[in-house]
Write a structure and sequence with these properties.
Layout lengths: L21 H27 L1 H12 E6 L6 E2 L5 E13 L8 H10 L4 H10 L6 E7 L1 H8 L6 E10 L7 H4 L11 H5 L1 H5 L3 E7 L5 E9 L7 E2 L4 H17 L4 E8 L5 E7 L18 H4 L9 H9 L9 E3 L4 E4 L2 E4 L6 E3 H7 L2 H9 L5 H8 L26 H8 L8 H12 L3 E2 L14 E2 L3 H13 L18 E10 L5 E14 L6 E8 L8 H4 L1 H14 L10
Parallel strand pairs: 2-8
Antiparallel strand pairs: 1-6, 2-3, 3-4, 3-5, 6-7, 9-10, 9-19, 11-14, 12-13, 15-16, 17-18, 18-19
Catalytic activity: Preferential cleavage: (Ac)2-L-Lys-D-Ala-|-D-Ala. Also transpeptidation of peptidyl-alanyl moieties that are N-acyl substituents of D-alanine
Protein name: Peptidoglycan D,D-transpeptidase FtsI
GO molecular function, one term: penicillin binding
């Protein structure tokens, strides 16, 4: 038995671990390499390629969306709305996201009011695109019913739609906008920059299905369009349109025009045209109804020009109100033309010439004047020139230059043939008689103050013509049906032959015209009425147009609180 020394352990000394082999070094190297690759990749993505990757990500999720601007309102002179923009919803789709399920497509097509064949054809046409309209300008309620179907690939877009409360009553004056709310006709077109405003823009995030995730910020606020206050009075406009339509229907006419102007300011208080159309529903639209005939169309005015030509006579030496003209035997030959009166009126003073509407009397007076006297008078009254209302397509009319005029041409101008005018030009010319000889340019916008007029005749001549025009609607005159109960009014009738298709004048087609002023004691309004081709029997201006003037003027004077200036008959 061996003996162990004290203090010495009987256990063996620990064995050192073996040195690592090749497998360990391989694993460690692999970890280092992978880490280096990951670090390099992260560096590449986060530092080197970050701008590119960020732009690509933004392109797929970040959007700049247009904020539509609210179009300005158009109102009448009293603030009553004539054209307003209402919010609507347009539905669009991404054809590449629409479901393939036949049932879902059938349900969507039916909800859109389309046949499945039409819907499939539309989708096929836009199959290579990511956008197509489904339905434009729906009411929010109707659009929501379709969105509630939760059809993949169908999205809403907020827009505005123009609405016209007056409908057909003022359609041609206001004009219309297209489906993108851009003015296309009338004052909507003329004042497009003012009414349209400026669309805004916002930055948003959308998911891969095009749905809004978050609004980041507003880049530019939408600036609403400016409002437009017109000169017309909606009450007078409705009344004028109603009376004009009644006359057109009653006389089986092709159409008609009525213009009412403020004699002091030139503001157009009413402007009615027939035929017309409903701007809120343009299905089956008659293109003739689009034209604002009062401003863009012309006609030969006929005898309503005689008071204006008479102003040139009264301003010439050797003539006054008591001048007498022998119109016997009721016809006269000038050049190769024969001019006739309705019958032989014999001797007439100047008031009698207008009251009887004598072509012979006017012709004989015109031929005694300076060659250019009537042309110069008509030019000063605004004929042959733009009325400068700013309305698109406004006509200048036609006033032939006084070069080598024949005697028959000079005579014809004196009784309203050989020139063409618009209804607005004619009404503006009559403001010179109503306004102490100063013609007031027409305005379609409400004015803050009366404009400076254009001297067109002397005040004394204008006052003489007012008196003569009042006799022209006397109880036994051809214009007697223009009389207004309780008010002194004056005016002139016109019955104009229309041009024939093969040249010359038609024998059975007329325009019936009346131009008048009221009240005579203190003129407030000037009204022009033209009825185109009445076919019910009567066609004289005194029988067809004068009653419209009477009804419209009487109602207008009462609505405007103009006190009566004549005892009731």
């Amino acid at each position: 038995m061996s003996t162990q020394r004290r203090g010495v352990s009987s256990r063996q000394a620990p064995v050192a671990p073996p040195l690592p082999g090749g497998r360990f070094f391989f694993v460690m190297l692999l970890i280092v390499l992978v880490s280096a690759i990951l670090i390099g990749r992260i560096t590449l993505l986060q530092v080197i390629d970050r701008p590119f990757l960020q732009s690509q990500g933004d392109a797929r999720t970040l959007r700049n969306e247009v904020i539509p601007a609210h179009r300005g309102m158009i109102t009448d002179r009293n603030g009553e709305p004539l054209a307003i923009s209402t919010p609507v919803v347009t539905l669009w789709a991404n054809p590449q996201e629409l479901p393939d399920d036949a049932i879902q497509r059938i349900v969507l097509a039916q909800a859109l009011g389309m046949s499945l064949e039409s819907f499939e054809a539309r989708v096929a046409r836009y199959s290579e695109h990511e956008f197509m309209y489904l339905r434009r300008q729906m009411t929010p309620e109707a659009a929501q019913r379709i969105l509630d179907l939760r059809t993949p690939g169908v999205y809403p877009q907020r827009e505005y739609k123009r609405y016209y409360p007056a409908g057909e009553v003022a359609a041609q004056l206001l004009g219309v906008t297209n489906v993108d709310d851009v003015g296309q006709e009338g004052l909507e077109l003329a004042y497009q920059p003012h009414l349209a405003g400026r669309p805004g823009q916002r930055r948003i995030i959308k998911d891969r299905r095009g749905r809004l995730v978050r609004e980041l910020d507003v880049i530019r606020e939408a600036q609403p369009g400016g409002d437009l206050t017109l000169s017309i009075d909606q009450r007078l406009q409705y009344m004028a349109y109603r009376e004009l339509r009644s006359a057109v229907v009653e006389n089986e006419a092709d159409g008609g025009v009525l213009v009412m102007m403020d004699a002091r300011s030139g503001e157009v208080l009413a402007m009615a045209n027939l035929p017309s159309y409903n701007p809120n529903n343009r299905a089956g639209l008659d293109p003739r109804g689009l034209r604002n005939q009062a401003l863009v169309d012309v006609f030969e005015p006929g005898s309503v020009m005689k008071p204006l030509a008479m102003s040139a006579v009264l301003e010439s030496e050797g003539f006054d109100r008591d001048t007498v003209v022998d119109t016997s035997p009721g016809w006269m030959r000038i050049d190769e033309y024969t001019i006739r009166d309705f019958r032989n009126y014999g001797e007439l003073d100047l008031a009698g010439i207008l009251e009887k509407s004598s072509n012979i009397g006017m012709s004989r007076l015109a031929l005694e004047l300076n060659d250019n006297a009537i042309w110069e008078k008509y030019h000063r009254l605004g004929f042959g020139q733009s009325a400068e209302t700013g309305f698109p397509g406004e006509t200048t009319g036609h006033l032939p230059a006084p070069i080598r005029w024949s005697r028959s041409e000079r005579a014809a101008l004196s009784y309203g043939y050989g020139l063409s005018v618009s209804a607005v030009q004619l009404a503006s010319a009559y403001t010179a008689i109503a306004n102490n000889g100063t013609r007031i340019p027409p305005s379609l916008l409400r004015l803050s103050s009366n404009p400076e007029g254009i001297p067109a005749m002397t005040p004394s001549v204008a006052n003489d013509l007012l008196d003569i025009l009042e006799t022209s609607v006397g109880a036994y005159s051809g214009g007697r049906r223009a009389r207004v109960e309780g008010y002194r009014v004056g005016g002139k009738t016109g019955t104009v032959r229309k041009s024939g298709q093969s040249g010359g004048y038609a024998t059975d087609a007329y325009r019936s015209v009346f131009a008048g002023i009221a009240p005579i004691s203190d003129p407030r309004i000037v009204t022009v009425v033209m009825i185109d081709h009445p076919k019910a029997g009567e066609f004289y201006g005194g029988a067809v147009a004068a009653p419209v003037f009477s009804s419209v003027t009487g109602n207008a004077l009462r609505l405007l609180d103009v006190p009566p200036d004549r005892e009731v008959d």
